[in-house]
């Protein structure tokens, strides 16, 4: 399913033949992606973009716990994947839970782009979180241990994905400290591309960062 499409189209700018790549972008808590802006992304491929906003996702989402929202979204996601037949799945922030949910249940294990992924407690990840029976009583240290455990669980599920993984983040201190630092070692071990762009957690929605999105798309498609 993650193979590039066989059909060809003619690029009007240089009269070159381009492969058609189906890109499925899923928005969860807010509808921020602008399809009109994304249509000007320049890559060596012809992008067939599908933007899907899950308006009721946030109604099932509980702070720090996202499993109920994933269960709600399950039939919608299955239908989207079947009907759009994507080469790439793109999610932002808490949407990483969608990717791990789909991979855990073997619904989607193709190419993915994670934009500023943030952990959330999920039932499907709990079995991968190592329990420390000697937890420190210091609340701050316990929170750090929980955050690290959730990241490790996410990484273990991401390593099940058969396709390629690209990760985009902003170049702010928070993005580097709370995301990149936890993913750097795994990205090196698994050949995941981490691409930093100007901005903070909303870097994906800045038009000046469209070239970074193009680079991530080309990376996960190319063998």
Q: Could you explain how this protein is built, in words?
A:
By secondary structure, the protein is of the alpha/beta class. The protein has a single domain (8-221), classed as 3-Layer(aba) Sandwich (Rossmann fold). Helices cover 40% and strands 19% of the residues. The chain has helices spanning 35-38, 57-60, 67-84, 96-104, 123-126, 139-158, 173-190, 210-221; strands spanning 8-10, 17-27, 46-53, 88-92, 111-115, 165-170, 193-197. Strands 1, 2, 3, 4, 5, 6 and 7 form a 7-stranded mixed sheet that branches. Helix 3 (67-84) packs across helix 4 (96-104). The protein is globular. Residues 1-7, 12-16, 132-137 and 139-144 have low confidence and may be disordered.
Question: What features would you highlight for this structure?
Answer:
alpha/beta; Rossmann fold; 223 residues; disordered N terminus; seven-stranded mixed β-sheet
């Amino acid at each position: 399913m993650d193979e590039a499409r066989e059909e060809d189209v003619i690029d009007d700018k240089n009269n070159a033949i381009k492969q058609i790549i189906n890109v499925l972008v899923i928005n969860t808590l807010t509808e921020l992606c602008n399809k009109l802006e994304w249509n000007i992304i320049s890559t060596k491929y012809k992008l067939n973009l599908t933007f899907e906003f899950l308006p009721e996702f946030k109604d099932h989402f509980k702070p720090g716990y996202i499993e109920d929202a994933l269960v709600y979204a399950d039939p919608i996601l299955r239908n989207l994947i079947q009907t759009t037949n994507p080469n790439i799945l793109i999610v932002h922030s808490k949407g990483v839970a969608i990717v791990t949910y789909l991979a855990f249940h073997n619904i989607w294990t193709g190419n993915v782009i994670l934009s500023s992924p943030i952990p959330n407690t999920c039932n499907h990840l709990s079995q991968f979180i190592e329990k420390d029976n000697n937890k420190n009583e210091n609340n701050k240290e316990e929170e750090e241990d929980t955050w690290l455990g959730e990241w490790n669980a996410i990484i273990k599920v991401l390593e099940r994905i058969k396709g390629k993984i690209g990760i985009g983040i902003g170049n702010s201190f928070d993005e580097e400290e709370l995301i990149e630092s936890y993913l750097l070692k795994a990205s090196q071990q698994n050949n995941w591309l981490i691409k930093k762009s100007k901005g903070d957690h909303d870097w994906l929605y800045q038009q000046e960062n469209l070239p970074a999105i193009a680079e991530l798309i080309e990376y996960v498609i190319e063998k």
